[in-house]
Amino acid sequence: MRGSHTIDHWDPEDTRAWEAGGSAIARRNLLWSVVAEHVGFSVWSLWSVMVLFMPTEVYGISTGDKFLIGAVATLTGALLRFPYTMATTRFGGRNWTVFSAVVLLIPVSATIILLANPGQPLWMYLVCAALTGFGGGNFASSMTNINAFYPQRLKGWALGLNAGGGNLGVPAVQLLGLLVLAWAGDTEPYWVCAFYLVALVIAGIGAAVYMDNLDGPGVDTAAMRSALKNRHTWTISLLYIGTFGSFIGFSFAFAQVLAIDFRAGGQSAADAALHAASIAFIGPLLGSISRVYGGKLADRFGGSNVTLSVFVGMIGAAAILIAGSGSLVTMSVAFVLLFILSGMGNGSVYKIIPSVFDAASRSLPLDAAGRAAYSRSMSGAVIGIAGALGGLGGVGINLVLRQAYQSGDGGSPAWAFIVFAAFYAVAALVTWRAYVAVPATAAPANESAPVSGTMTS
């Protein structure tokens, strides 16, 4: 340790050091990373709940505008993952976690002011939603930081737990919104925001007291440039668009889709919002939990094999959506299934990343320390890039649904579901071609099977 919160010469692959106290340090940093990322995800998803408190006749915001608000929040959260990926190397994991929690006090406070004063122009809601995107950037810095703390054999579990705990911030804010809707109606959303003002302060203080900075090789601009030239970065990003893009896109859109269907059935706006909120949180909740198990399954069976199975399942779930369009029960079940599968895919895709570059490092003329540094920096860079591009899938989902509901065929989302199914089919084909269909003789043990045959960049 140097100073009170900086660790020199961290080597998680040193088994003796790991068992002598390294694992306890890693767990402590993982715990508070999960807390901060969890709250960040909740703030990022805040407007998926706030739109339920915004009757069109009061705020002048249309259904299409609400999908646009979700798309803007998703977009900024995705784009901010690029700089956030390098932030922990530049400023330290502990320091950046504290900053990234505190800065979110700004959009949460702005949300309170906007909702307390209905009738503002649309651009003000869009700016506020964009600021909540800083919470989406937290994912990249958190995942890059935790990737550096854990050994290769535990990365699937650690990254899955870190990401899954963060993803739980989505159903958490939606469940809190449901409780406020049931208790106070759609006129007092401030309780949701007030809770997160307190939660952000707790997360910032906890990170400051209990987390550490790692002094050593990490993700910098050189690593990012190298990653951008590596074809695995783009292949993995495509897969992550299908998994995480689906998770975050549906997280923003699911409640709106349900509310529209409830209102089409004759319910008032207030009742439709309440009933939609009572169902919407279930999908993100199960998707967040399944991410952890997706990582564990990937540790055992290989990230590529689990990912291929996930996309096949998502094609089937999308087919159910297409066939059951118009049936609220069928659509709800299919959406929940998509959440579960996309969550598992999030964990399995991120297992592929360190496996790819660990395998690649073995062919380099470097010593053990050099190979570990290469694997760590490249994995961290690709985690950030894939996380950013994956988030753009959520933007696409909200825009496609927005267009579907505004189209001239009566506002049916069926053709949007066809677009989703087609993308999952492409992603399944890419997974099979790039990471599964390799000669068995070229495959090292476990995950490396889909990696070894495709190592050149």
TrEMBL record:
Bilayer disposition of the protein: Multi-pass membrane protein
Main location: membrane
Classification via Pfam families: MFS_1
Residue ranges annotated for the Major facilitator superfamily (MFS) profile domain, each copy included: 235-457
Subcellular location as annotated: Cell membrane
Gene3D superfamilies with a match to the protein in the record: MFS general substrate transporter like domains (1.20.1250.20)
Keyword entries, A-Z: Membrane, Nitrate assimilation, Transmembrane, Transmembrane helix
Transmembrane segments annotated in the record for this chain: 30-55, 67-84, 96-116, 122-140, 161-183, 189-211, 232-260, 272-294, 306-325, 331-353, 381-401, 413-432
Record bears the keyword Membrane: yes
Source species, domain of life: Bacteria
Family the UniProt entry places it in: Belongs to the major facilitator superfamily. Nitrate/nitrite porter (TC 2.A.1.8) family.
Protein name: MFS transporter
Source organism (scientific name): Gordonia liuliyuniae
Classification of source organism: Bacteria, Bacillati, Actinomycetota, Actinomycetes, Mycobacteriales
